[in-house]
Amino acid sequence: MIRRLDPGTRSKIAAGEVVARPASVAVELVENALDAGAETVEIEVDGDGTDRIRVADDGRGMAESDAALAVERYTTSKLSAADDLETVETLGFRGEALPSIAAAAARLELTTNDGGPRGTRVVVDGGGDATDGEHDKTVSPAGRARGTTVEVTGLFSDRPARKKSLASPKAEFARVSAVVTRYALTRPDVRFVLRHDGRETLATPGTDRFADALLAVYGRDAASHASTFDSSREVSAAGETAAVEVDGALCHPEVTRSRRDHVHVSVNGRALAEPRLRRAVADGYGTLLPDGREPVGVVRLRLPPAWVDHNVHPAKDEVGFRDADAVAEAVESSVRDALSTADLRRSGEVAMDLDSSLAPVEAASVFDDLRVIGRFRGLYLLCEAGDELLVVDQHAAHERINYERLREAVESAGIDAVSVDPPATVSLSPTDAALLDANRDLVEKLGFRVAEFGDGSRSGSGTGTYRVEAVPAPLGRPFAPDALADVVADVAAGDDADPRDELLKDLACHPSIKAGDDLTDDDAARLVERLGSCETPYTCPHGRPTVLAIDEETFVRGFGRRSGRLG
Ligand code: ADP
Ligand code: MG
């Protein structure tokens, strides 16, 4: 039953969610459908989403009296008193989503049936700023099977500033796609269908198998190189302990992306873009990941509601934890254990040495006084420089050198493209496909030529399959066709950064052009020399350090010596 929250409870809830963009509407409606126990959720978006968003579910629906109340402010069936806030297990609890959406839109139409012979339609017209009072609402009988459909049209039609702040329709749809994908992967038991302008872009089967959901989103390659896991960890804070259940599916390290947004996490059923948890997942992969690459996977956390505070963020993007570090550690170790037992045979990677094709060093090296005295684990070069011990990260150094060389070559000669013959087949996730669509010009300017391979909806998997006919080949080094997904994401994220530059960074870090780990002494000396002649020798293209210094003082203190000189 839906009731109105009392003012005391309201005051304890973080200020209402802002309907910032079409994707926020999609999240709220999808979460309502999941709270209603839906097995199928269908999302339709027209244009940028301000034209029309419609979410239909087969959940438990509402009786007429509840349907009429649901669009009012602070009315919810999910919370009855402030005390419940500690233990709330539903995705919603504030009773603000439907009225906020209605106020931001020209029209909200809710059609619902709780299983009775007749359903109910509630229409809120005109939008305007619905305060605590009533708005223009009509309630009438309607035919509908059990479940609920909410259709929102004319979003922001009377908020021109808000509407103006939106990105292009394709970019706004990509945001919707990203949030729907997050739920589709963390709730493989629910069938999700997403359509844009009538075209199906995502369809998961709702079989409750991660592999099936991954297949629908990322294609066969990723789905067939993934392992599921299920584990439990104890965490304690302030003398209390609790169990954190962690489960999900992790793609093996040969399936990677350049960005971390393909780590999909949920906490007690809420799918979140939580940077700390995503980082914990990546940390769990540790050195299994090639440098500069990010994993693809789904990780779900379950912990007692009292240990989680979903109320810290108005848009519920982030959550608070009683002990965030302990939770991150539980995630990291679960992922690490899962991967250590997974079958992780790598497909052989060919190491090509880019340096051999490059001009010799001309600029003076800042590491002139430096001598390579040894190597550690095939990864680090130990160097003596005055009274410091320098540790050079071999991979990071190589990336920096590659990057600066590539940049120089591209500045003088541009990026060549070479055709791929026969064309390579690459599948993009629905979100990446939408981003490609939105940024096709830029992607093609970089040297890719891409043709769509039939219609994603035909296969039923919803995955967009593309034919890559040409790839960029700076310095005659062709890009791997499946780097398309990374490039698309880079270009789309390209804030103010030059997408060509992002491309070069990726290429410089791509495992296929980095030297192998077993350098000769000469190679090692040359690497350090080249690093020294770089414009920015101390960081890799993605900003991580290339060199760490340990001064002699550290050893003096560590060994309990009295003076800085040996004696
Ligand atoms: P909240 O989710 O915070 O309770 P909302 O404004 O999103 O607030 O929804 C108000 C109420 O309407 C919910 O508590 C729920 O009872 C009902 N409701 C909303 N959407 C649905 C749906 N898809 N199916 C069934 N009930 C729904
Ligand atoms: Mg809600």
TrEMBL record:
Pinpoint the DNA mismatch repair protein S5 domain residues. Answer: 214-340
Provenance organism: Haloferax gibbonsii (strain ATCC 33959 / DSM 4427 / JCM 8863 / NBRC 102184 / NCIMB 2188 / Ma 2.38)
Q: Name one Pfam family in it.
A: DNA_mis_repair
InterPro entries linked: DNA_mismatch_repair_CS (IPR014762), DNA_mismatch_repair_MutL (IPR020667), DNA_mismatch_S5_2-like (IPR013507), HATPase_C_sf (IPR036890), MutL/Mlh/PMS (IPR002099), MutL/Mlh/Pms-like (IPR038973), MutL_C (IPR014790), MutL_C_dimsub (IPR042120)
Q: Name one GO cellular component term.
A: mismatch repair complex
List keywords of the entry alphabetically. DNA damage, DNA repair
Swiss-Prot/TrEMBL GO biological process terms: mismatch repair
Q: Residues in domain MutL C-terminal dimerisation?
A: 372-519
Q: What is the lineage of its organism?
A: Archaea, Methanobacteriati, Methanobacteriota, Stenosarchaea group, Halobacteria
Keyword set includes Mitochondrion: no
Q: Supply the name of the protein.
A: DNA mismatch repair protein MutL
Region called Disordered, residue ranges? 112-146
Transmembrane helix keyword on record: no
The domain of life for this entry's organism is Archaea
Job description of the protein: This protein is involved in the repair of mismatches in DNA. It is required for dam-dependent methyl-directed DNA mismatch repair. May act as a 'molecular matchmaker', a protein that promotes the formation of a stable complex between two or more DNA-binding proteins in an ATP-dependent manner without itself being part of a final effector complex.
What Gene3D superfamilies does the entry give? 3.30.230.10, Histidine kinase-like ATPase, C-terminal domain (3.30.565.10), MutL, C-terminal domain, dimerisation subdomain (3.30.1540.20), MutL, C-terminal domain, regulatory subdomain (3.30.1370.100)
Query: Family per UniProt?
Result: Belongs to the DNA mismatch repair MutL/HexB family.
State the Gene Ontology terms under molecular function: ATP binding; ATP hydrolysis activity; ATP-dependent DNA damage sensor activity; mismatched DNA binding
